[in-house]
Amino acid sequence: MTEPSTYPVPAEWAEKARVDAKRYDQLYGLALADPGSFWLEQAKRLDWIKRPEIAGDWSFDEADFRIRWFADGKLNVSANCIDRHLKTRGDQVAILWEPDSPDEAPRSYTYRQLHAEVCRFANVLKAAGARKGDRITIYMPMIPEAAFALLACTRIGAIHSVVFGGFSPEALAGRITDCDSTIVVTADEGRRGGKHVPLKANVDEAAKHVRCLDKVVVVKATGGEVAMQDGRDIWYHEAAAAVSADCPVEPMGAEDPLFILYTSGSTGKPKGVLHSTGGYLLWASLTHELVFDYRPGQIYWCAADIGWVTGHSYIVYGPLANGATTLMYEGLPNWPTPSRIWQVVDRHKVEILYTAPTALRALMKEGDDFVTATSRASLKLLGTVGEPINPEAWRWYHSVVGEERCPIVDTWWQTETGGAMITPMPGATALKPGSATKPMFGVEPQIVDGEGTILNGATEGNLVIARSWPGQMRTVWGDHARFFQTYFTTFPGKYTTGDGCRRDEDGYYWITGRVDDVINVSGHRMGTAEVESALVQHEKVAEAAVVGMPHDIKGQGIYAYVTLNANCEASEDLRAELRQWVRTEIGPIATPDAIQFAPGLPKTRSGKIMRRILRKIAEGDVSPQALGDTSTLADPAVVDDLVANRVTR
Ligand code: WT7
């Protein structure tokens, strides 16, 4: 039997969905033809303290470079995510929390309870000295208090910077320092898959390398032993008992900063991606409603971590702005059993599930029985994000998990874009496995060649976005020049995504992966330069070059070529030591999957490393055609050595 290449919109979806195919075409056209009125109309979905009269005001040209949306509007994000729902759905569950272990009881918070929790958290932050515009670093496990902390920051106008709990003390210290955070919010420990993560101890370690830090607010999550430093550390539960459960909202300009989120780029240290208040919230809320066709009362689960942008936009801000019930899960999809994710679906009657291809591939490998042993009858819609999904995993998700009744929304976006950019809408878009399909309203994708020439029709090249959209990042924290340089100079006048892309004859977009020195490991972005700089800090390493390699589960793995200093001996022990070294320097997600000790790296006569060749060798494609012309290398013989000593781990 041949698998269909296109899955038409099911009739019942076309009928009941908010946006059907005809409406999609109309609204897509309108948003491009008259963006001013389109976006002012859309802005009505938010509660404004002062309603905006101007929509987009932007230019991607160097001379008058600016990105502003709804700049004359005033609003508060926590009022939009909580207060405005109190009258209509105060007793509806806002956050449903599933703990790491299935033997523990879930917790839930209604919108009214959420209001009290967030107000208290905001008052604790204020008592710790937080003011509008201050940066607060949040280094938390996936517990409800993490969401309270985010919302509390927005309530008082502080800018949060969430650092994923899997990052090392070194990485945390760098992020605290970069944005001059005075307060860190953390927990005693995190838990994942039964293992404890010493978050507070990591903060203590990070604090040794940081000058700006004033207070550490510690949530008691596991009750694990921690050291508290007098005058600096505050137990959240003690401080919360002493403050009021009411806190007024700070009126914010739409362009006031909302949060910073660090992400890896192709060069240097991670960039602090800055999102602003009005445009971001509008984008998160609109896309959450349309992409998932979210209906009041539905249980919705985005199985990401709050440490990544997916968690920001689709666990917290989008769903809560829409008055949804959002499920937050502390643990892993496959612990204690590969059925766990589906058991959580059944336990909470989840209707919409949003997860990543890497999780699906890992679960698929365990066999269908772990899926079919569960009901999943509540599921109506499935989503995926983070990396291209291979058609095989797509079809498994569709037929085995969704029993062919659930459309799949494959959403392409980035930390920088704030929310979904190229994505199906379930009532409007016929699906093709592996394609993120069509652009969201207001998104104008283009495919350009290396010179920036626009390629029309069915084609392949670099994906750029030709105009601004409300959810676009506004700057790199502390380095506006780097923002312009990174995203607007490769193809002047356009936003460069860093992704390669194919467009087919039906106008569907197929992301082919990064075209820069960024690799996508399990849906998480890793800059090769970051891993290289960690490696060369080891005393025995003279030089390192890192590239991506294909990986069955992770999508891409990390392949490191390492040249040792003279008199240093390559060994299995050293290989293990270097892996551990990178884990300590950056975090487990950066652990190299393969390390090849290389006496020399392929360089041009001017000393530039030929990464193209290193990528091919890591991929195992060592044919002369793949390796191409090596005659321009300073020493062509190094390639033979690299090929002969290729490793798989
Ligand atoms: C990069 C952005 C968006 C939140 C999670 C990752 C890749 C993301 C898809 C998709 C193909 C995808 C791109 C993009 N990517 N979603 N549906 N299909 N590729 O956010 O860490 O900022 O990474 O992830 O390469 O540029 P991020």
UniProtKB/TrEMBL annotation:
InterPro entries per UniProt: Ac_CoA_lig, ACAS_N, AMP-bd_C, AMP-bd_C_sf, AMP-binding_CS, AMP-dep_synth/lig_dom, ANL_N_sf
CDD domains: ACS
EC number: 6.2.1.1
Gene3D superfamilies named in the record: 3.30.300.30, N-terminal domain of ligase-like
PROSITE patterns assigned to the protein according to its UniProt record, in alphabetical order: AMP_BINDING
Every AMP-binding enzyme C-terminal domain range: 530-608
Amino-acid positions noted as binding Mg(2+) in the UniProt annotation, renumbered to this chain: 536, 538, 541
Keyword Nucleotide-binding carried by entry: yes
Alphabetized UniProt keyword annotations: Acetylation, ATP-binding, Ligase, Magnesium, Metal-binding, Nucleotide-binding
Domain Acetyl-coenzyme A synthetase N-terminal: 24-81
PTM section of the record: Acetylated. Deacetylation by the SIR2-homolog deacetylase activates the enzyme.
Reaction catalyzed: acetate + ATP + CoA = acetyl-CoA + AMP + diphosphate
Domain (AMP-dependent synthetase/ligase): residue spans on this chain: 83-468
Residues that hold CoA according to the record: 192-195, 310, 334, 522, 583
Cofactor: Mg(2+)
Binding site for ATP: 386-388, 410-415, 499, 514, 525
Modified residues (N6-acetyllysine): 608
GO function terms (MF aspect): acetate-CoA ligase activity
Reported function: Catalyzes the conversion of acetate into acetyl-CoA (AcCoA), an essential intermediate at the junction of anabolic and catabolic pathways. AcsA undergoes a two-step reaction. In the first half reaction, AcsA combines acetate with ATP to form acetyl-adenylate (AcAMP) intermediate. In the second half reaction, it can then transfer the acetyl group from AcAMP to the sulfhydryl group of CoA, forming the product AcCoA.
Family the UniProt entry places it in: Belongs to the ATP-dependent AMP-binding enzyme family.
Name this polypeptide is given: Acetyl-coenzyme A synthetase
Organism (species): Sphingomonas colocasiae
